[in-house]
Design goal:
One of its GO terms (biological process) is L-proline biosynthetic process. Pathway: Amino-acid biosynthesis; L-proline biosynthesis; L-glutamate 5-semialdehyde from L-glutamate: step 1/2; Amino-acid biosynthesis; L-proline biosynthesis; L-glutamate 5-semialdehyde from L-glutamate: step 2/2. It catalyses: L-glutamate 5-semialdehyde + phosphate + NADP(+) = L-glutamyl 5-phosphate + NADPH + H(+); L-glutamate + ATP = L-glutamyl 5-phosphate + ADP. InterPro entries: AceGlu_kinase-like_sf, Ald_DH/histidinol_DH, Ald_DH_C, Ald_DH_N, Aldehyde_DH_dom, Asp/Glu/Uridylate_kinase, G-glutamylP_reductase_CS, G5K_ProBA. It contains 23 helices and 24 strands. By secondary structure, it is α/β, with parallel strands linked by helices. The chain folds into 3 domains: about 250 residues, Acetylglutamate kinase-like (Carbamate kinase), CATH 3.40.1160; about 190 residues, Aldehyde Dehydrogenase, Chain A, domain 1, CATH 3.40.605; about 150 residues, Aldehyde Dehydrogenase, Chain A, domain 2, CATH 3.40.309.10. The protein has an 8-stranded mixed sheet, with helices on both faces. A 6-stranded parallel sheet has the order 17-18-16-15-19-20. A 4-stranded antiparallel sheet has the order 23-10-9-24, with no helix packed on it. The longest helix has 25 residues.
Length: about 750
Amino acid sequence: IRCWSNIPFITVPLSRAHGKSFAHRSELKHAKRIVVKLGSAVVTRGDECGLALGRLASIVEQVSMLQNQGREMMIVTSGAVAFGKQRLRHEILLSQSVRQALHSGQSQLQDMAIPVLEARACAAAGQSGLMALYEAMFTQYSICAAQILVTNLDFHDEQKRRNLNGTLHELLRMNIVPIINTNDAVVPPPEPNSDLQGVNVISVKDNDSLAARLAVEMKTDLLIVLSDVEGLFDSPPGSDDAKLIDIFYPGDQQSVTFGTKSRVGMGGMEAKVKAALWALQGGTSVVIANGTHPKISGHVITDIVEGKKVGTFFSEVKPAGPTVEQQAEMARAGGRTLAALQPEQRAEIIYRLADLLTDQREEILLANKKDLEEAENKGRLALPLLKRLSLSTSKLNSLAIGLRQIAASSQDSVGRVIRRTRIAKDLDLEQVTVPIGVLLVIFESRPDCLPQVSALAIASGNGLLLKGGKEAAHSNQILHHLTQEALSIHGVRDAVQLVNTREEVEDLCRLDKLIDLIIPRGSSQLVRNIQKAAKGIPVMGHSEGICHVYVDTDASVEKVTRIIRDSKCEYPAACNALETLLIHRDLLRTPLFDQIIDMLRVEQVKIHAGPKFASYLTFSPSEVKSLRTEYGDLECCIEVVDSVQEAVEHIHKYGSSHTDVIITENEKTAEFFLQHVDSACVFWNASTRFSDGYRFGLGAEVGISTSRIHARGPVGIEGLLTTKWLLRGDNHVVSDFSEHGSMKYLHESLPLPQRNAS
């Protein structure tokens, strides 16, 4: 057995029943025994006199929830000194006021100075009140708490150590939450940190070292250290270049500059890191996080246990590749270099990628076969998703054709002048197109999405982060490798990054300082989750594809069944597939209506009746549960409307502003529908399936947007560009244009430069 020291009373075995510390945040949900250390700044108010009751109540609620899940929770708490300070100040003020009133005989009291209160006396006065508060709070959740006070001397005596260990185990066995604190009423003054500098020994000097010591002694799975900073930074928090360190590894101390200590308490961040590393070496995972921030303190503990990216996680396992933050920075730098290339060079990269898709088709299809076999063996994908996952020679050929279209149309996308104005003499203003920055595209079961989106990002000069579903891991890996091979011909390999770490989508959506736009490609649930999780990052996409086809009284018999069949049956899993069929009331019980029903039955489409349609039938199909349903399969809803106006109203009420179609030979009715339906795509006598970037001639699309800002409908290169203003002057200042100035505004529109005809 390896020991921490040759001194018997601090011998701790490294080989323990619960094994090594967790390697990844995602494993923290398996933590059974957890220590939560509450720093003085977390427990006390901003005036350092009294407790932050609301914050403390929230922490107790989270600990209780985890305890009731069957975990074994322990709390190492500060706060006795602050609570005692509040009580003693009150007593002193009351005592002084009584004496002064008796002495002066006056009811008016003069200003009274509060003497400096000795910390140990404050601790003695506050300890019982602090514990009573914890007991009252935990009682609300039917949980019992027990107080344990310790000093460093308790760890120096082998018998006391055993007694402490036994007491804690017995309390945990009885489902009691131990509340542990240093006995500050008798604790000696702190000693230098000599035992924390490179030696495997730790003394109890503050609650950080106490928490680490207890975590190792009790073979704890997780130690959560809550302070008043977000975690560990690579330089003092608040400095210009300070960045939060997501994962900290042993040996990284040299790259970190420590700031000042916490506003209250004994331990600074350096002490926390040393205590955390000591606990980590003993087999306990550690997270240091902010327990005071009002937006996160209400769920910080549960978020950590759920594996969310909160604070700094200490790990002994370094990932093989870069972190996602490093990948985002590489994508930004690569994207800026990409944008600075000549248009012909960006096009050359895309042409090269198109060639690789056909030249390397055997390797691509082999990787895709592995994904399909794994998905089928695990049985985790529905048939529509398996179809999306599948690649074929024809799909790769179509991809290559689309990429060549993108290359041909991208010649003047970046840096195109869209407005020129002469502000004044020799003062000209231009508005030019520029890349958005770094795009994060999250996609499910669609490996063909990777080269499409990569080509659009390359053409528009954007850096790109790709997060694909694990079901397409092999396909995505080879397609990304080919993309980087194409990028390498002009030295911009890093512009497109594939995220292969265990990063949760929700954590990626929080990288608001690194990512400029999120584009989800997948199920409506995925899109909704991303829209909910995105913190300060715009999301381009649509949460649902509830597409309608309205059959008017003047519809052509020949066109109706062809358009409906194509819209519903050609690819029912697509977001642009028909979901609700609206039929004019006058068409019921006509040969045309019978043809529609017969065709749907032949195609094995399950029909759900809308409320009005069901009322016309004696024996109707199953009535629809909701008119806002995206089936994504061979199912659809049929509903009856009385007019084109009612069809428009129905679409506005139940649709998702994606794609809606009218089938009619009446041009006036068609134009009314086209002008009044407020959707991204509105068609006349054409299948909903035309709502696609490739079919629109965009080469490909990053997605279909139903948003009303920036881009709408299938989004190609233009939707991945924004603008900036360039002003060229000659010693111009605003004061020259004042009432008595020498210059006047002209605001003349200037002709735009000729676009590249090719």
